[in-house]
Design brief:
By secondary structure, the chain is an alpha/beta fold. The protein has helices spanning 24-36, 51-59, 88-101, 138-151, 156-169, 174-238; strands at 16-20, 41-46, 63-67, 80-83, 104-107, 120-124, 127-131.
Length: 239
């Protein structure tokens, strides 16, 4: 089955987000939202709000907390909504209210009730990559995120800044600009790959060199043992 989801990057700090739920999962959703868009206006509604969320409000005053049950009117000022509730009936009630208000909603751990999913995110300064498994396995998405985070160089921001500078100075039509930028990025990737291979060879060589003294010491020890045995056998024969 193909993944027919369409990825978008929202200017979340220009929107209002309704979060329904006040437990551990709600904390994770808030951390993801505010970790990517710290100035986002968030309205959180829950019968019980955890101490962790109260602490987050101290750091992010743009979070407004409402310790009470959810009501459909909570959608009136929201652009999108995220729910983190345990009860399936409450989740279905939230989905129904969101549909009536024409608000897109994500309901944690209930893919069938979601209008959109929150993907796992790779972030290196200006570079941001969202990963989707079509709602099938957040764990796999998390592992891929960890792999990409490790693989992408930390100096990516320098490359992006240079490419922006070059793009702004390029003259010609759109097709020419795309062709030139493709050529430059291809050259960069080739050079980076070449340097990484050379670095790997150097690391391998250093490891081999570091083993030489150990091998020499080991061989010397073996030779000494053989010499002692030889002398011992020779003396025994003379007797």
């Amino acid at each position: 089955m193909d993944n027919t989801l369409y990825p978008v990057f929202l200017k979340l700090e220009e929107l209002s987000v309704l979060v329904i739920g006040g437990g551990k999962v709600a904390v994770e959703k808030l951390e993801s939202l505010l970790g990517n868009a710290p100035a986002t206006r968030v309205k959180l509604v829950a019968k019980e709000i955890s101490h962790e969320i109260g602490e987050m409000q101290q750091k992010f005053p743009n979070i407004s907390l409402h310790e009470r049950a959810f009501v459909p009117e909570d959608f009136d000022e929201a652009d999108i909504a995220i729910a983190a509730v345990n009860s399936l009936s409450v989740a279905e009630e939230i989905r129904t209210a969101a549909r009536e208000k024409k608000i897109l909603v994500n309901i944690a751990d209930k893919p069938a009730l979601c209008d959109f999913y929150l993907g796992s995110i790779v972030k290196k300064n200006s570079l941001k990559i969202a990963i989707s498994t079509n709602g099938k396995s957040p764990t796999v998405a998390k592992r891929i995120r960890e792999m990409l985070t490790e693989m992408i160089p930390d100096d990516m921001e320098i490359l992006l800044g240079n490419m922006q500078h070059i793009r702004n100075r390029l003259h010609g039509d759109f097709s020419y600009k795309v062709q030139e930028l493709n050529r430059l990025t291809t050259e960069y990737l080739y050079e980076s790959s070449h340097l990484e291979k050379r670095s790997h060879r150097n690391r391998t060589a250093r490891k081999q060199i570091s083993l030489y003294p150990v091998m020499v010491a080991f061989l010397t020890f073996v030779l000494l043992v053989l010499l002692v045995i030889y002398l011992f056998v020779g003396v025994s024969r003379l007797r």
